[in-house]
Design goal:
Number of strands: 3
Order of helices and strands: HHHHEEEHHHHHHHHHHH
Mean pLDDT: 90
Structural class: mainly alpha
Radius of gyration: 21 Å
Low-confidence stretches: none
Number of helices: 15
Distance between the termini: 17 Å
Strand order of the largest sheet: 1-2-3
Length: about 375
């Protein structure tokens, strides 16, 4: 039975902010892909329609259904991630896509939502000691993270694996962890950092080295970052105008429709346009945290916080990445970077936040 009162509490703040960003993203994709002979902006628009339908479906059902089906969602995600390694389609040296014939999708994107739901269920079911969780308490949620993290990292997809790790850390800290536990884990993992270097692919090592010294390979791995900085810096306050950017329109900027889509936008719309994108992103993130803070249901609170952390880390890392503050790790910008699986994932996240917000009055 659907409580009609829930629809009078529809969260227009989250929805309209997301729609505004998505609309800006599609217009920007038109510019970023001009001259490529493709219509990626139209494909993105179709995925946006599907995403809106997904929001409608999610908000129709009580978010508590996600808790009931958490094991199924998590298990299905792991199954798809394993299938990627067995039957996946390779592109750009990575095996990340599953081809169903009529559509290809990236299971690793949906793993972010599945991880949030599964962790929210676990944390809701345990009793957290007043002083916080110990290492023993973190072991099981750590295992919940480890399975998708390893499968995604081996594709390889360092960016998505990093997002999964940061979501886990954020949600665990939100629940509360003992300071001694944090200190112990930090001390245990610090010596392992040098060994992690040997597990990186050659192109990942090259990206890290280019970040440390951008001049080491200006025509190779350092080229992306150099062109991105030129694009953002040359936009000035009001930008060069729609379709008038040089780095994007003249194809100097690689990956301008995915990881570096913000650079294209900043060049054409300047600092003023970039601020609008940042403000809209902050509205979604901060309002999501507000929903988490004021949700009286524990599962809903963990769920909203997890989704908000997903949006935060994606936005923060992408913006820092294109400005040269972080290495290029392949993390797209929510609502603006091209990608059907990613857009559908963030729209599902929006749907979950709206769902939780709509039903806060019931508790």
């Amino acid at each position: 039975m659907i409580d009609r009162r829930t629809f009078t509490h529809f969260d227009w703040v989250i929805f309209l902010s997301a729609m505004a960003l998505a609309a800006i993203g599609i217009v920007n994709l038109y510019s970023a892909t001009a001259g490529l002979g493709s219509q990626l902006y139209l494909k993105q628009f179709y995925w946006l329609i599907i995403g809106c339908a997904a929001i409608g479906i999610i908000t129709f059902f009580n978010y508590s259904q996600l808790e009931r089906f958490a094991y199924f969602l998590y298990g299905a995600t792991i199954t798809f991630l394993v299938a990627v390694h067995l039957f996946g389609k390779s592109a750009g040296g990575a095996k990340r896509w599953l081809n169903l014939g009529f559509v290809s999708f990236q299971p690793s994107e949906f793993a972010k939502i599945a991880l949030v739901v599964m962790l929210a269920k676990y944390f809701n079911e345990i009793t957290v000691p007043r002083q916080g969780m110990s290492i023993k308490d973190i072991f099981l949620p750590g295992f919940i993270l480890a399975v998708p993290f390893i499968l995604v990292a081996k594709q390889p997809d360092l960016g998505t694996a990093l997002i999964l790790l940061l979501i886990f850390i954020s949600m665990t800290l939100f629940v509360k962890v003992r300071w001694k536990t944090l200190l112990g884990i930090s001390i245990a993992f610090l010596p392992l950092i040098p060994f992690a270097w040997h597990f990186l692919k050659d192109y990942q090592k090259a990206r890290l080295l280019s970040f440390i010294n951008p001049n080491i390979d200006l025509l190779g791995t350092g080229y992306h970052l150099k062109q991105s900085k030129i694009a953002i810096g040359s936009g000035g306050f009001i930008g060069k105008g729609f379709l008038n950017g040089t780095q994007g329109q003249l194809k100097f900027l690689p990956e301008r429709h995915t990881d570096f889509v913000f650079s294209v936008f900043a060049e054409e719309w300047g600092f003023s346009g970039a601020v609008i994108v940042v403000i809209l992103s902050l509205v979604i993130i901060l309002w999501g945290l507000h929903i988490a803070q004021h949700s009286k249901d524990r599962f809903a609170s963990f769920l909203a916080f997890g989704i908000s952390s997903l949006f935060f880390w994606h936005t923060a890392i992408n913006l820092a990445m294109v400005m040269g503050l972080l290495p290029v790790v392949g993390v797209p910008l929510p609502f603006m970077s091209y990608g059907g699986s990613f857009l559908l994932t963030v729209m599902l996240g929006v749907g979950i936040l709206i769902n939780v917000s709509m039903r806060r009055f019931m508790f």
